[in-house]
Design a protein that fits this description.
The complex is a heterodimer of chains A (168) and B (92). Chain A is mostly helical and 168 residues long. Chain A is built from 7 helices and no strands. In chain A, helix 2 runs antiparallel to helix 3. Chain B is 60% helix and 9% strand. In chain B, strand 1 and strand 2 form a beta hairpin. The chains are: A mainly alpha (168), B mainly alpha (92). Chain B: It comes from Trapa natans.
């Protein structure tokens, strides 16, 4: 791997921020045009919450798509979101959670024998928080976490600046 | 063959050492606002992981809050108003 590509793999970049912003804004426009399903209990605050849920999913999927397939977490998140949004095209995509018994045993051995025992609880929590974390070895989990955190920060920064930039 | 007792782990074809783990943990530590100003030798790895989890959760909460605010703002836009065209022009 060249140094440039290696760096790009490791850290989110400005071009990622631009790709995410564009994707997310386009989705916002689409969401604005959409209307919630008619419901007898519909109120404007319910509509706001309904739309907020769509916006939240759009934010995560825009970021995952902008990162693309080069990160385990972005692949896992994209698949999870597509399942959530009920996109039938992807329902048959099995995905990469191929955790064989040997890998599971190897992973457990690693964690018990060689890592500080008190890291196990932290690692376990990270597995729940980082998409695709359940089947990662500890090193990958730590690497993916670092990238995931930086992308989340980028996502929050962009959403904040959209909110602040809103004409009112 | 090195006689240094490096405690190594094998994961299929990749060998990983405790040094590498320590390295990755300190990389994480530099990302967490809580620890950015502290020297790395004062924070235990498990504390770094715990704070990382807390930080991720707080970022996710913030995404939720910002989504609510965006939803309110979008709802208050009038169709075909100046505001709507400003948003559209952002995408040009």
């Amino acid at each position: 791997m060249t140094l440039a590509r290696d760096t790009a793999m490791k850290n989110p970049t400005n071009s990622l921020k631009r790709r995410f912003s564009l994707k997310f804004l386009k989705t916002l426009v689409r969401i604005r045009k959409s209307r919630p399903p008619p419901s007898p209990s519909a109120s404007s605050s319910w509509e706001i919450r309904w739309r907020a849920q769509k916006i939240k999913l759009a934010a995560y999927s825009s970021m995952a798509l902008s990162v693309g397939s080069k990160r385990t977490w972005s692949r896992a998140l994209t698949m999870k979101l597509r399942a959530t949004m009920g996109n039938r095209r992807w329902s048959s995509w099995k995905g990469s959670k191929k955790m064989t018994k040997r890998r599971i045993v190897a992973k457990k051995n690693m964690e018990k024998r060689h890592l500080e025992k008190d890291m196990n609880s932290g690692l376990q929590q990270l597995r729940q928080l980082v998409p695709g974390g359940e089947s990662m070895d500890p090193r990958s989990l730590l690497e993916e976490t670092a990238h995931f955190v930086r992308c989340l920060e980028t996502q929050v920064r962009v959403m904040r600046s959209i909110v602040e930039g809103f004409p009112c | 063959m090195s006689s240094r007792r490096s405690r190594s782990m094998q994961s299929g074809s990749s060998r990983i050492t405790e040094d590498q783990i320590t390295d990755l943990v300190s990389k994480l530590q530099r990302l967490i606002p809580e620890f950015r100003n502290r020297r790395s030798d004062k924070v235990s790895a498990s504390k770094v992981l715990q704070e990382t989890c807390n930080y991720i959760r707080s970022l996710q909460r913030e995404v939720g809050d910002l989504s609510e605010r965006l939803s309110e703002l979008l709802g208050s836009l009038e169709t075909d108003s100046d505001q709507a065209s400003i948003i559209r022009s952002l995408l040009m």
